[in-house]
Amino acid sequence: MRTLLLWLARSTWFRDRIPRLPFARRAVRRFMPGEDMEAALDAAARFRSEQIGVLFTRLGENVTRDEDADATLGHYVALLDACAARGLRAELSVKLTQLGLDLDEDRTFERVARLADRSARNAGVLWMDMEGSAYTDRTISLYERLVGAGHANLGVCLQAYLRRTAVDVQRLLPLRPAIRLVKGAYDEPPSIAFRTKRAVDANYAALAMAMLEACAAGQQVRIALGTHDVELVEQLAGHATALGLARDAFEVNMLYGIRLDQQRRLAREGYVVRDLLAYGPAWYAWYMRRLAERPVNVVFALRQVLP
Amino acid sequence: MRTLLLWLARSTWFRDRIPRLPFARRAVRRFMPGEDMEAALDAAARFRSEQIGVLFTRLGENVTRDEDADATLGHYVALLDACAARGLRAELSVKLTQLGLDLDEDRTFERVARLADRSARNAGVLWMDMEGSAYTDRTISLYERLVGAGHANLGVCLQAYLRRTAVDVQRLLPLRPAIRLVKGAYDEPPSIAFRTKRAVDANYAALAMAMLEACAAGQQVRIALGTHDVELVEQLAGHATALGLARDAFEVNMLYGIRLDQQRRLAREGYVVRDLLAYGPAWYAWYMRRLAERPVNVVFALRQVLP
Q: The whole model's pTM is what?
């Protein structure tokens, strides 16, 4: 099932056709406040009243023309302006391939740098998302270059299913980084990735501990646990407490529409919770990866489709 | 299956009858070199030639008379003498209830102290095993008392399935401890223990990381990973390397007769491996817990029984 869904995510034939089907558009509504910025901003305002922060991302990846990368940049700048105007302390998560990484690394650097500067004016972190393993090295290098150039308010996403991540965490820790740890949602081979849920979970716990230990040792690191695995989050909270850390030593990021009851419960219990609001017309590949991530989501999707 | 086997482990009715059955005696041979000390010493000598260390434990627990606790003490002293005479660098793992913990804590303290002193003469650590959760507090307290009294060559076993262990590790780390981390083999309720394999594995990884981080920070801690989960061991080895630790920063402990091929492979690859040799006539409860731990062991046991 997972492999099939991840294959569908990459298929351009299906990418051109599935989004036109009315039932597919209905199904994706569960995970997306809407296709435009206004819908996302309205959802963010609703979350604010529940003490749940948000993280915006406009769907889309692998742009093939510089104009498209510039348009994405323009969209994000407008979004940050809109947040400032509404007094929303929202942050952004961007995919480097939607800002031109497939085209030119230096121009991508410039676009990310501009968004980081604009985010700093909103007192927020700009998060760089992580894509398939073909981009891991370049994403981490770009992160290091940007931090080295003085952009202190940058965060990066690391994936627990990759075997290399143990080394990447240690490499980044001296940079006073912000790291969002996710399990990983692409189809990676066993030579570079753990493939069983047990192994990925164990690695996730070990990586989170590495960051919590750094935090307990007085190093500056902002930790975001990007997972819907509440049991794992609570287990790690126990370890954080054992290390003498406060509840806000880490934050929890979950996707819009997934386990909202748990997002609310964790927020009520004093966890820092941030809902990732993904929106936009280019939802197809992203949505397929969400279904692949949690088989139960397929059931939800089918339920939406049935009358 | 696990619950049934753990119930069988506690049942005195079955404990009196099963060990008399010839097929049961044949089945246990897989996990036990023999019932007497000589058989264990011979097995240890064979392991030495394969660069695999050993850890002895004489089976038996919950003695109800001081004479039995003293007899266990006498047996272990004789074993340490025999090791010294044969030039074996073997270590012991003892259960506190086989040294009288159900009877009197101070006399148990004295017996453990004597074994620790005798082990120090062999330049070895004396390991205190961990039993069911009714003994966790007393075992840890006794460990602290003994270390406080100057017994620096003492180790203690902690169980990753217990929720409290995150705190116990942090509590013990300042003592320059030796800690053997196991998943845990008793039947504990969900209020105090993680019950799914995924949660136990993730907690195991987090706890091992806490110890590896302490080691990387220059604290003195001897780490033994008591598990047959080779994937988890290799995953943690990756984290140890990422922390800049050498391969011998931790050791791996596995039971006699379980995954011997892996014990040999790990030893060849430069891991410090120690085989836990459990022996003696009182094997019943211990053997049932071994079967409960890994369902595949039941298959092995049945195979031994069939012609």
A: 0.90
